[in-house]
What we know:
Elements: E1 2-13, E2 16-27, E3 31-35, H1 42-49, E4 57-62, E5 65-66, H2 72-77, E6 80-83, H3 95-103, H4 106-119, H5 134-147, E7 152-156, H6 164-178, E8 183-187, H7 191-197, E9 200-205, E10 208-214, H8 219-227, E11 245-255, E12 261-271, E13 274-279, H9 286-294, E14 299-306, E15 309-310, H10 315-320, E16 323-326, H11 330-333, H12 341-353, H13 360-373, H14 390-402, E17 408-412, H15 420-435, E18 439-443, H16 447-453, E19 456-461, E20 464-468, H17 472-479
Parallel strand pairs: 3-8, 3-9, 6-7, 7-8, 13-18, 13-19, 16-17, 17-18
Antiparallel strand pairs: 1-2, 1-4, 4-5, 9-10, 11-12, 11-14, 14-15, 19-20
Helix pairs in contact: 3-5, 4-5, 12-13
Amino acid sequence: xxxxxxxxxxxxxxxxxxxxxxxxxxxxxxxxxxxxxxxxxxxxxxxxxxxxxxxxxxxxxxxxxxxxxxxxxxxxxxxxxxxxxxxxxxxxxxxxxxxxxxxxxxxxxxxxxxxxxxxxxxxxxxxxxxxxxxxxxxxxxxxxxxxxxxxxxxxxxxxxxxxxxxxxxxxxxxxxxxxxxxxxxxxxxxxxxxxxxxxxxxxxxxxxxxxxxxxxxxxxxxxxxxxxxxxxxxxxxxxxxxxxxxxxxxxxxxxxxxxxxxxxxxxxxxxxxxxxxxxxxxxxxxxxxxxxxxxxxxxxxxxxxxxxxxxxxxxxxxxxxxxxxxxxxxxxxxxxxxxxxxxxxxxxxxxxxxxxxxxxxxxxxxxxxxxxxxxxxxxxxxxxxxxxxxxxxxxxxxxxxxxxxxxxxxxxxxxxxxxxxxxxxxxxxxxxxxxxxxxxxxxxxxxxxxxxxxxxxxxxxxxxxxxxxxxxxxxxxxxxxxxxxxxxxxxxxxxx
Length: 496
């Protein structure tokens, strides 16, 4: 029995056609995976089903009834809940206050906190959401959606910042969820997860449904359906010549917004020609560490040096002196979504060159070159970022950070929300930058990414840092805190 059906859905945003006759059918009691390249229309299709957008054409049916009113309130009344990549949280309020604001029911609030305990998610309920990491915010959104006990739950990239252990626990919970006459739709770019959680898979390409197949379909075939041909290949790593120290951090102590130590005596080096990866569950001090390095957060004790000299007090100065930054939330901290690609590129140039007079013909040419090089699906450089998919916005943020050579790249979750082909392209580019002599500090919650790219792996837990062997089991144990207990509160040096 079909719980939800979408027939020939069309949706346009100005000159961009996001959906061009897409269809989907989800049955009661199933987990349905939705796959496709960035810009294929996955999130747009789900936003229509969740009442957040109205289609330009096509029909939507829930429980055999045609839906004509597309509002979040109507979707909620019909038992549909969605956790999108763009969060719906009030930043100045605490996590607990956001939970109460969204649920307004004591039993649902209690259920959300019980689910957090069941999943092993440590949430700082008294902390303002603005102070939470991206991963903590995502967990809060998932708990909000599960607590209202919807009939149809839509999750957009739910495991993008979860560890393998957390992912396994969430999948177990979702399996129990659909067993009670419900259904789940999961948007994911991690093809390895499809067989773990889903029953069937629908693949979209360029706004249209390509196929609906069993979740047991080989990943190579799923990739072919997504891109039209098998173009996803393994990244061949070419190690560069490791040279001088470019970034050095010594005995760094940083407080979080709650006044407690978020970074405790951290030290490490990054040399030219190498990638140093920092793994760990989001919320263990990575954000505060990177903010301190960028000059966005004051540190109590320690030292940060770039090319032997004192580090800089602002991101602008890092840019001007040969470093590139990719923050953990580029949509909020790097891009102006209401602006065009060209104007965003011009803003970065102004920051870098400290000039106000710009050659707009040159900037349009630069924006177009970046757009094509990074595969950003937009009609032109004059397209507004607000009309692009989340994956294409991430591609544009990467273009702004990686398109030009720098001595140092400070990157947080660079491939978050990207499809398989785009991820491989980014990995190949980082590999080439390393071979050309750049120093790269990579902070990623994707353990596979850290293992694939890094010359050295550090693990961050509860504000502390340790160097790990390049073995999945050893890194996973450290990510869970094993081996840190005896050193809590002590100064740790992971420099090499």
